[in-house]
Each structure stands twice: as structure tokens, then as C-alpha cells.
Amino acid sequence: MQTLTVVEVAERLKVRPEWVRKAIKRKELRGHNVGTKARPRYRVREDVLSAFIDARTVNDIERD
């Protein structure tokens, strides 16, 4: 099981690392704190990130 840092997740999603941290804090993205409560260092499993992406994939877009 491979884990990714916040920066690695941000690079894959093409967002800023701050967005990833906020998504973890809002419990939109499941992450694990490997640091301390005062200074968290989050990790996200690759399979969790894949599920996150799959859940947000748009299949059919209706056009007006």
C-alpha cells in the first residue's frame, strides 16, 4: 500500500497543497496524520485518492 504526501496529492490533482489539507480537515478526502496534533503531516493512500477521483468523475454532461 503506497501512501502519498500532501504535495504529491496536490500535484496529481493539479491543486494547491493547502486545498488538499483543507479537504482532509473537512473529511472530504481521507488522510492519516503521521505528525503531531500541533504540527500535522498528512498522508493519503493511493487507493483512497483513486476512489476520491472516481467519485468526482463526470461521465455524461448535458449540453444546452
Order of helices and strands: EHHEEH
Biggest sheet character: 3 strands, antiparallel
Rough shape? elongated
Structural class: alpha+beta
Measure the end-to-end span.
43 Å
Integer tally of domains:
1
Query: What is the mean pLDDT?
Result: 93
- Using only C-alpha atoms, the radius of gyration works out to 13 Å
* Low-pLDDT stretches: none
Predict the CATH topology: Multidrug-efflux Transporter Regulator, Chain: A, Domain 2
| Biggest sheet: strand arrangement | 1-3-2
Provide structural commentary:
- Helix content is 42%, strand content 14%.
- The chain is elongated.
- It has helices at 6-13, 17-25, 46-55, and strands at residues 3-5, 32-33, 42-45.
- The termini are far apart.
- α1 packs across α2 (17-25).
- The chain has a single domain (3-55), classed as Multidrug-efflux Transporter Regulator, Chain: A, Domain 2 (Orthogonal Bundle).
- The mean pLDDT is 93.
- The protein has a 3-stranded antiparallel sheet.
- It has 64 residues and is α+β, with helices and mostly antiparallel strands.
- β2 and β3 form a beta hairpin.
- One of its GO terms (molecular function) is DNA binding.
- This is Helix-turn-helix domain-containing protein.
